[in-house]
């Protein structure tokens, strides 16, 4: 039994026990020997190969790898026992008449009576052998048919397992085919137009500022193609083309291997043969239950008759001998021959009839044995076919894994070529990004200058306000106000000189002027929505700078002043604005 934790669960174990009870031969035999009529037994008879999914029963089948090998020998022929019954020719044991103690044992009539008893005893012994043989043959046939049913269920399980493997392989084939065709179609398109892409890059001129920078670095670059290592990329594209062709060849081989696995329709003939084999087992089971069961019952009734007749014969003989011995009635012995002859005439055909039925049962037992022999041969062939099919499926799935890994590597390789294919769009976005960054730097510079100018105006206003105070009412204050209470009362406001980071990046950005579209192909890409959002961000910030510069300065000053716990917005009425000073 496989060491699987699922087999240790209580649910699985209960299902397996239920399957064992359904396959128990004793329950079948007990139902067959019940006292119901034939019609009741047929109506209640359960199909030996009935489906048990509704009952929840499960079965566990173990298959021998050696038996499934290519060189495995054919299974030995089935031989059921007992095939031959040996009937006694003489009555065994001593006679229950005890004739040796009779004073007239040597009389011819007494010898004739003893011969009758021995003859009926022989019939009884022969009938017992035939009845016991019928019972053993019935059990052997039932056991053999049950074993054939187990083989049929095992084949069902193997075919079902193969179907699960095949359906999984079919799903894998569909999913991988879709993925493969999508990726390889894109790769084929890129490889096919790679040279035209390079030609297109040669028609896209670089911006003059970029050309000047390249010349300053000792290099000549006038088009986008000059920025590409052409020979290396062409060699790489050639290598990718070889890999692409190899992938297509491998996929064709894989698709052919999938096709060789067959389809549900291609296995219809095998399925029909399996159903016919199961039907033969079912018919054989019904024949055993009908024919062999009836023969066994008739043999049992005949044995019962022989037993009764023998007991009757012994009683008649003993009564006649006792009457002659005890009462001297010699005619009683003579009268005893009449019922004995009648019983003998009635019983003379019992044993021959039992022998005829035994021949029928023997032929049926041989038929059942031959059926099992053929079933074992067919089982070996079918299981070998299932084993080979499962091995083929596993090999194909292994090939799918290898090809999938190769496809992933090919996608990684083609990424380098995609850089070249996307270079024109990337160049357009590059120009937009440079323009946006320059706009950002200019916005920062202008906003900083405006803020510094605003702070300078506010400080001048503050200086004049302090001077008015000190020259006015402040000159009447006593020294403690200047020395103790507010030591900075007579000092000017601090000079605000923020240390802003230097925008070194502006010196490295080329001046490309307004953003333009240098090529018609790039124009089409622009219309397709490929422009970076950086240009829109730059434009927005530029409009905000122009439209809301004063308010931006006020917001910046307000934020800085809040940190000093007082709000200084403006100076006096002569400063040229309408701002006022508000105490917190």
Structural class: mainly alpha
The poorly predicted ranges are 28-36, 518-584
Written as H for each helix and E for each strand, in order along the chain, the element string is HHHHHHHHHHHHHHHHEE
What's the main sheet like?
2 strands, antiparallel
Based on Cα principal axes, name the global outline: elongated
Mean pLDDT: 78
Give a count of the beta strands, DSSP E runs of length 2 or more: 2
Terminal Cα span: 87 Å
Instruction: Strand order, main sheet: write it out.
Output: 1-2
Q: What Rg is obtained from the alpha carbons, in whole angstroms?
A: 55 Å
Q: Roughly what percent helix?
A: 55-70%
State which percent range the strand residues make up: under 5%
How is the secondary structure organized here?
Layout: H1 10-22, H2 25-32, H3 38-44, H4 108-192, H5 194-202, H6 208-216, H7 230-260, H8 268-327, H9 331-347, H10 350-421, H11 423-471, H12 479-485, H13 505-508, H14 520-527, H15 533-547, H16 549-562, E1 567-568, E2 581-582
Antiparallel strand pairs: 1-2
Helix pairs in contact: 4-7, 4-8, 4-9, 4-10, 7-10, 8-9, 8-10, 11-15, 11-16
